[in-house]
Amino acid sequence: MLLLAVETSCDDSAVAVLDQDGNALAELVSTQMVHGEHGGVVPEIASRLHMTVLPGLVREVLDKSRTSLNDMDVFAATAGPGLTGSLLVGLSWTKATAFALDKPFLGINHLSAHLHIHHSSPVEFPAVALLVSGGHTMIFHMSSWSECVLLGTTRDDAAGEAFDKTAKLMGLGYPGGRIIDELARHGNPGSVALPSPMGSKKLPEFSFSGLKTAVRLVWEAGEVSPEDLSAGFRKTVCDLLVSKTMYQAGKLGAESVLVAGGVSANSLLRSEFLRECRKRNLKLFLPPVEHAMDNAVMVGRAALSALKSDPSAHSTASCNTFARWHGKMLSPLSC
Description:
Layout: E1 2-7, E2 12-19, E3 24-31, H1 43-65, E4 74-80, H2 84-101, E5 105-109, H3 110-115, E6 127-132, E7 137-144, E8 147-153, H4 159-169, H5 176-184, H6 209-221, H7 226-251, E9 256-260, H8 267-280, E10 283-285, H9 296-309
Parallel strand pairs: 1-4, 4-5, 6-9, 9-10
Antiparallel strand pairs: 1-2, 2-3, 6-7, 7-8
Helix pairs in contact: 1-2, 4-5, 4-6, 5-7, 7-8
């Protein structure tokens, strides 16, 4: 079986061809660099660029995998959450292609897709998963790939959003997560005192707006270097993410810890999770850095997971986009 997956939830256009085991025969991601000029993603620009890039990206992936659209058995695309205009481009193209070829189509939940980047790994359940990205910061309890329950989320900003806004405040550019991570390597996190909002590890929820305010006040006082402030901010965020996730893993008797989303590329976050999971003899699953960001492989693996649970699984032509997810039980198939 061959599956073509499409991801256009924000500013990355991504396409992949996967086999039935979730291996990528070919994959490509086209990142829209123009948003750096605006200090953040401009939705209208993003959706128009998806329309320009996607057809050529599909052709290139098919060429690289030595396949054609007619060879595909299943099509899948992200339906949400994300930017509505961006989602519409990928979802509409994929639905139309599947309809024209009379092939099944699956509309995939973007959050579940991030977790399913680990679907081809030997994850042992029960597991606790941290999804941490520019738009989402969530902890899940997973009894299996088809049983995923939300434990808690952020009450305001996501961790990745906090990284980007802090970098913008300091005049470091966009996207800011990678820049702060690099600067922090050369700074002293102990040189600046920052609060840890909702810091109790027993509470599986997060808040980063107050931390951003504290960073702004320290920065405007002009008494700390960009390196030291970056180091202090990075450590505060990573300590919150790791302590809350590891507490839930111990409380729920997890065998594995999964981390996914763009912030999972952060070097300190990765090293702290490695250290804590080794201490507790837990299996840790971190995505390759290139698969931490939005990609089509994760969408394809989520679709394959849905088909493994129900070989007849499919979405109808009425499957539509959605900007936010407000559920409690997370599943790969969104509609």
